Amino acid sequence: MGGHLNANHLLFLGHGALWTVGLSLIALIGGGIVGFVIALARISPLKSVRLLSAAYVQLVQGTPLLVILFLGYFGLAAIGLKMSPLAAASASLTLYVAAYLGEIWRGSIQSVPKPQWEAAEGLALSRTQRMIKVILPQAMRIATPPTVGFMVQIIKNTSLASVVGFVELMRSGQIVNNSLFEPFIVYAIIAAVYFAMCYPLSLFSQKLERRMGRGSANNLSLA
Amino acid sequence: MQQTASSTPIVSLRDVQKSFGSLKVLDGVSFTVERGEVLAIIGRSGSGKSTALRCIDRFEKVDGGEITVCGRRVDLPDVDLRALRQDVGIVFQSYNLFPHLTIEQNITLAPCSVKRMDLSEAKALAHKVLAQVGLEEKIHAYPEQLSGGQQQRAAIARSLAMQPKVMLFDEVTSALDPELTGEVLKVIEQLAADGMTMVMVTHEMGFARSIADRIVFMHRGKVHETGPASILTAPTTPELVQFVGTGNLKS
Fold first, then answer.
1. Which of A37, A84, B112, B133 to pair with A100, CA 20 to 30 A apart?
2. Least CA distance to A121: which residue of chain B?
3. So what's the ipTM on this one?
4. Which of B82, B113, B158 sits opposite A133 (nearest CB)?
5. Alpha carbon of residue B6 to chain centroid
């Protein structure tokens, strides 16, 4: 059966790897947009908005991504809302990533020192102006290392989309293995490809973290 | 109600009450500041002097009493905060410059976004106010490249660019080394000479004595003694005697 690993198999895996990257980007962009709204909602002056967004975050963070994927693909289909594996995986990952990025970014916004808000208020800037011109530029610097670090989690978590039949790297590995019966070599290759995607991001995140602090209000010591 | 503008104080506090939880910070504070006047609020840490100052710009909401600033009732919930803060400039102990912006951008931000000033006009204004505080050469620097004294002068310039009717100084030299304090005080002195209305919370007794038209000595949330700067050299209450006698009277 099967035969040997050949160029076609590798091409197939490469194709899967591209979808892993694609799905990661979809999750990052979709989750980023929704997450940004969540972050702002979490610090809203309106209590109801704060509570709702906090409930969303708790709900998603307290649910395994695998369950969210099953709900999105099999669950919704059972009640008449049939989605393609790509759509279901994208939607589930977006919801999932949004909850985490929302929290990372809320924390970043809130770790801009309070006197910065006051100084902006004292200059008569509106709440929106304070946010856009004073707080967010500083929060972005704070948020960048953990956000890049979280991208590693996104990439690895896209492998779960294989369970709804979406052919990304993990699923393509399973398919190749089904014809070759060489699980060690096939999954070792898969692991190596994931590592090759994630490790540079981890390094980059660490580098950013070390560079952080320059040009932040925390750094303007009172000395 | 026929009062002329000149006789109406720019800032007036009447029986202001404020508590943080069960701690009563302001217990019936009243004072007024006339146009062109320099008022120095002095007192021990925890006497409520910074809180009183922050109430003027409504960084603290009061529990009772009346505060009027430039004809506006600040204690009422419907006060137009943005209009209030265009009239009132505030400078903080920790400078609070925006670290991601150059000094010029720090200064032009509010005139451009709040007053809708042209960028070129705002830049000219930045030059002008930086000249006033003697920092023209730092216009393109970032805050972290400046010394503490320079940062505080830049913060004063940023506040001046909004052309406030009254300036509040909240212990603006407390974070500075003695040798850097002088350059900031000199700037404030010049502002006073130019006729700016100012309220300052300060620990610099010598400075308060030389610059202030009036002193408010706060003790346990109350205005304990008030009068011209001479009360610092001839205090009448034992508390002020003790306060100025504890080595606070630097010249």
1. A84
2. B85
3. 0.89
4. B113
5. 21
